[in-house]
Amino acid sequence: MDDRPRSLRAMLAEAKDSSELMIDLAYAAVFFNDPGMATEVGELEERMNDLVQDMREVCVLAVRRPAEAEGMASVLQVISAIEGIANASVDITRLVTHRLRIPDELIADLSNAEEVSHRVWVREGSHMAHPAAQGPGAPGAVRDEGGGDPP
Questions:
Q1: Is this model's pTM higher than 0.85 or not?
Q2: Residues 6+ apart with CB under 8 A from 133
Q3: Which CATH number is associated with domain 8-118?
Q4: Residue 107 DSSP code
Q5: Which of 75, 27, 33, 71 is closest to 55 using CA atoms?
Q6: Span 67-88, mean pLDDT?
Q7: 84 burial class (0-12, 13-18, 19+ CB within 10 angstroms)?
């Protein structure tokens, strides 16, 4: 059963949230040189590709008259922009996945950005490790399955 939202409004909201998360995770992957975060961006991109396709299909099916086409063309432009953000996020993670390095001085400058992502280790058994804690508010949490100290 498909658990993705079916209304265009809900799908646009999900795509916006996902693209924002992807760009944050991509920069965090570079900042922390974390292949796991880079992999998460790739997984989010796969879901985003499906969502973008679904939104395009809804747009095509929603237009019944030529007068509606102009408005829907604008929505399709927004969908393409969201897709571009997702693709750019994957491009950013290639710095990590292809083991390319940027100068440490530039990495330090990332910490001066207005918004910086931080890594949080959650031990199994913590109330934060509960699956309900995952979602838009805590998608980048890394679980410590072994109970030991984070690497």
A1: no
A2: 122, 127, 141
A3: 1.20.58.220
A4: H
A5: 75
A6: 93
A7: exposed
Q: Give the mean pLDDT of 28-34.
A: 88
Ordered by start, the domain boundaries in the chain are 8-118, 120-151
Residue 122 dihedral angles phi and psi, to the nearest 5°? -115, 120
Strand, helix or coil for residue 121: strand
The token duo for 100 is 């390319």
Residue 89 in tokens: 């996020």
Q: How far is CA 96 from CA 56, 84, 92, in A?
A: 31, 20, 8
Q: Which helix (H) or strand (E) holds 144?
A: strand 142-144
Q: Classify 150 in phi/psi space as left (phi over 0), alpha (psi -120 to 50) or beta.
A: beta
pLDDT-above-70 percentage for the chain = 70
